[in-house]
Write a structure and sequence with these properties.
The structure is a single chain. With about 150 residues, this protein is mainly α. About 65% of the residues lie in helices and about 0% in strands. The radius of gyration is 17 Å and the shape is elongated. The two termini are about 30 Å apart.
Length: about 150
């Protein structure tokens, strides 16, 4: 990474959205989607925003940092964290997928899958290790009982 450049998931999300837009504009390949997919795309974006808001409330309630690469002060297992260990990342993937559908062309269709890989390698695996280091057996139980994505 660039020294001093913020290594945050929203920055990566914005970069992937920019790449999707650029691919759709410069290399559209096939105009593959129509109004149904535009509506589904907007629904995924709205649902993702709502899920981010709901998830972020739990960081505030537990008084633990939401930023990656910080030591957690609490293990959040309530709210959306009952079903997914990473609801904010899941929401970002849903929003990127929604944006790709809304763009209506085939060229950026692989970007959400690539974004999942980036999130997993850069953020999720280190965060899971930090949870285990900080909360031990309680974190291990949570990681075993709750799915990473859905």
């Amino acid at each position: 990474m660039l020294k001093g450049f913020p290594d945050w998931p929203p920055i990566w999300f914005a970069g992937f959205c920019a790449a999707a837009w650029l691919l759709a504009r410069e290399l559209p390949l096939v105009v593959a989607f129509g109004p149904l997919f535009w509506g589904l795309g907007l629904l995924l974006i709205a649902g993702g925003l709502a899920l981010i808001g709901w998830s972020a409330i739990w960081f505030w309630r537990k008084k633990t940092p939401i930023e990656p690469h910080h030591t957690p002060k609490a293990l959040i297992v309530e709210g959306p964290y009952r079903w997914s260990r990473n609801p904010i990342y899941l929401a970002m993937v849903a929003m990127l997928t929604g944006y790709v559908l809304w763009l209506g062309v085939l060229s950026p269709i692989l970007l959400p899958g690539l974004f999942v890989s980036v999130l997993t390698l850069r953020f999720i695996i280190p965060e899971e290790e930090a949870l285990v280091d900080t909360f031990g057996l309680e974190a291990r139980r949570y990681l075993q009982q709750t799915r990473r994505w859905l």
